Amino acid sequence: MITLRPFQYTDDDYRLATSIDAAIFDEPPEPIAEWKHDDQNRGEKYPYHRDIILRDGQPIGFVETYQSRYTYHPQKYHCNIYVHPQHDAGDVRPAVFQQIMERLADEDLIAIQSGMLDDKPHALQFFEEYGFRPIAEEKLSKLDVTAFNPDDYGAVLQRVRHAGIKIETLRRLIDSDPGWQRKLYDLDVTVNRDIPSTGEKHYPEFEEWIPWRLEAPTFDPDAWFIALDGDHYVAQSQGNINRDSQPVQFITGVTTVRRPYRRLGIATALKIHAIRFAKQQGVQEIFTTNDSQNPMYQLNLKLGFQPLPSWLRVEKEL
After folding, report:
1. What single DSSP character describes residue 55?
2. pLDDT of 61-119, one tens digit each?
3. Rounded distance between C-alpha atoms, residue 59 and residue 82, angstroms
């Protein structure tokens, strides 16, 4: 029998959920502190529920039901069902979905969105049988840092320098630029509008952005690179190192460039700086994700990133 129980927000439940997540993605577990920070900074305006999935009382997965603060629509919910590969079966998602829809029965919904890796046959079968249609695809990829030689890209770095662009770490800008927070916020909000999305984007105000971006446990100003035209912030590449993972892994969060500064090699130069930093820190691999329509994915492939199973986003009209 498939049942749900509320997530308890204890260390035990966090360890349970992160271990299930790691098994699904075949990646090292994400730090519990990162999950806790996200849970503490969701904002009361946007409903969010996490439940543990039980089969005959034993945990086999978890489900997240929420309205996205970044692509908010008042009549749409997300329902992502994560099932441990060792316990995945065709009856799990239908049973979970039925219980979630009963919970949302009083909501005036027009659609439910969901997603899963495209190498999970039970999830794909569920999407097809229940009328979900693909709406987007997120490409996952990984780079073997030990085999990467940053010196092969000296010409790109020189081209960017000749264009008058300087690349600094956020650490140096924190020490030298009193207005770094406002400038970084403007860059972050402006360039993220161009990243492909499945809905209308919403961004936090400056006061909400600070704890979301600058107080997260993954915040590492040494791994956040900014491209400067004079004192103007024109591009960024942000990441962090998961030193608890085996192998040690660098996670690339976002690489974006303001429109007037594209096609100059700046994104490539930023990534070279990030990869060189990761290599110096003893990182063995870099993991990143990109929307399939994002040119950054093709850039990553040119740099030697290898494709992984993709995250398929789907939607069911109600």
Report:
1. E
2. 999 999 988 788 889 999 999 999 999 999 999 999 999 999 999 999 999 999 999 99
3. 11
- For residues 61 and 19, what is the distance between their CA atoms, to the nearest angstrom? 10
From 296, 294, 170, select the one nearest 233 (Cα to Cα): 170
Are residues 231 and 177 in contact, defined by beta-carbon separation less than 8 angstroms? Answer: yes
Confidence of residue 196 (pLDDT cuts 50, 70, 90): low
User: How far is residue 209's CA from residue 192's CA, in Å, rounded to a whole number?
Assistant: 13
Tally the C-alpha atoms within 13 A of residue 4's C-alpha that lie toward its C-beta: 24
Q: Is residue 99 within 8 Å of residue 91, measured between CB atoms?
A: no
CA distance 140 to 155: 28
Positions of E strands within the chain: 2-6, 48-55, 58-66, 76-83, 111-117, 133-144, 165-169, 224-229, 232-242, 249-257, 285-291, 306-307, 311-317
Rounded to whole angstroms, the Cα distance separating 135 from 127 reads 12
CA distance 262 to 70: 25
Classified as helix, coil or strand, 145 is: helix
Contacts of residue 1, Cβ cutoff 8 Å, sequence gap at least 6: 55, 56
pTM score of the predicted model: 0.91
Per-residue tokens: 49: 């529920």
User: Which residue do the tokens 């999950």 mark?
Assistant: 35
- Using CA atoms, how far residue 157 sits from 69, 110, 147, 162, 220, in Å, is 37, 49, 20, 9, 23
